[in-house]
Amino acid sequence: MARKKKSSEKKSPGKVVSTTGSKLEDISKLSRKELKERARKFSKQYCVGDGADFQLKKYSTDPNIDLGPEDKPLMKLTLETGVEALAELQDKMYAQDKWSLLVIFQAMDAAGKDGAIKHVMSGINPQGCQVTAFKAPSAEELDHDYLWRCQKNMPERGRIGIFNRSYYEDVLVVRVHESILHASKLPEELATPDIWKNRFKDIRNYEKYLSRNGTRIIKFFLNVSKKEQKKRFIERIDNPEKNWKFSSADAKERNYWGDYMKSYEAMIRNTSTRESPWYVVPADNKSFARIVIVSAIVNAMDELNLAYPRVSKEKIAELKTIKQALLDEK
Ligand code: ATP
Ligand code: MG
């Protein structure tokens, strides 16, 4: 059971997952239809939709629900149930081979992107899923426009593509450190003060183009607090098994926190659309964040009305004949 914290102005309601009132509830027995309806309602709270009036300060980094260790088993079960529903939808998407889904993750370091990808995608068929991590661009990538390396990694029809960072880095890290822009091979006369506005426009158009061609896009900003990041960094330093995850560059980027938050806000305001929305996920609690993510993905896939391909009468007749032949085999 979860105890609801005092109500907050921030958009991060206490009703978790599957809750009625302030209690966590076992959703594993719900029908698929009901489960999808819950996923829709639950994830909607974090969906920005049309970003015109977006303000980051209205979104909490904390789920605003007091989750104790006793809630862990139910949180785990909730995530597993969501992943199961996701796996079923993915199976249909793969069989239908028409739609694709692009899921983008952006966040400050240690916000939990890697863990979310690992847990949310754990139960699905690896054949139908492609994960791409985008780091600082290589020399070859810098020889092209910034969308080039992403276009090359777009999911095929029938598949889910996960971008661990994406072309959005080009309006985030590159905006926070303009020196990166000037050191790139972009002709100087194109690096004008309008560049960010123009990039937002290009991204909106690009995502529209992808949507019109059968790629559904959803985008997650894992909204972690500066305080929680500090805690996770210290954990990475203290725990030898986590040392590999920490780099001094991460600590340096932390000094630009305010600039990053401004850039995230501008990015979401300018690129969240009803068709390809941003979700601002409270990320100070990892388990909660994963449940938000799986709910949003289930909802996005459910909206595609996926179905197994219909088999023609001729094909059914052929299958029956083959079955009979198999049964008759000596
Ligand atoms: P982890 O959580 O393991 O640290 P990560 O996604 O931060 O995962 P890293 O290898 O640490 O992976 O970092 C990738 C770095 O590449 C980030 O600091 C990111 O800002 C940077 N990066 C990504 N795209 C670009 C880009 N277009 N230009 C410059 N830097 C970029
Ligand atoms: Mg990093």
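^ magnesium ion complex. The chain has a mean pLDDT of 92. Residues 109, 250 surround magnesium ion (ligand 2) (CB under 6 Å).
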